[in-house]
């Protein structure tokens, strides 16, 4: 599920919770909307976390390594 799917879940959940006054026997439409919004927020947070991790690139093999303790450069 991408960013679009998560935002879609948030939007549909908000519509079901705040804009609809349907009464269906055996189904609490407000609760379904809240669950959809929570799933959308969790999915969005997970997607952003994975995307952030994916964009971080390791240093190239020829880059010098800096020792933090005494600031010497090693190759």
Concise structural overview:
The chain has 75 residues and is mainly alpha-helical.
Low-confidence stretches: none
Report strand %. 5-15%
Shape: rod-shaped
Backbone CA Rg:
23 Å
The chain-level structural class is mainly alpha
What is the succession of H and E elements?
Answer: HHEE
The major sheet is characterized as: 2 strands, antiparallel
Mean pLDDT: 83
Q: Going across the biggest sheet, name each strand in turn.
A: 1-2
- Cα(first) to Cα(last) distance is 42 Å
Written overview of the protein:
The chain is mostly helical and 75 residues long. α1 runs antiparallel to α2 (29-55). The chain is rod-shaped, with a radius of gyration of 23 Å. It has a two-stranded antiparallel sheet with strand order 1-2. The model has no long low-confidence stretch (mean pLDDT 83). 59% of the residues lie in helices and 5% in strands. It has helices at residues 3-19, 29-55; strands at 65-66, 73-74.
List the topology elements.
Blueprint: H1 3-19, H2 29-55, E1 65-66, E2 73-74
Antiparallel strand pairs: 1-2
Helix pairs in contact: 1-2
Key features?
single chain, mainly alpha, 75 residues, 59% helix, 5% strand, rod-shaped
């Amino acid at each position: 599920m991408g960013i679009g799917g998560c935002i879609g879940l948030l939007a549909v959940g908000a519509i079901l919770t705040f804009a609809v006054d349907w009464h269906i026997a055996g189904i609490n439409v407000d609760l379904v909307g809240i669950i959809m919004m929570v799933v959308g927020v969790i999915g969005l947070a997970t997607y952003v976390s994975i995307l952030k991790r994916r964009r971080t690139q390791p240093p190239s093999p020829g880059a010098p390594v800096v020792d933090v303790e005494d600031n010497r450069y090693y190759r």
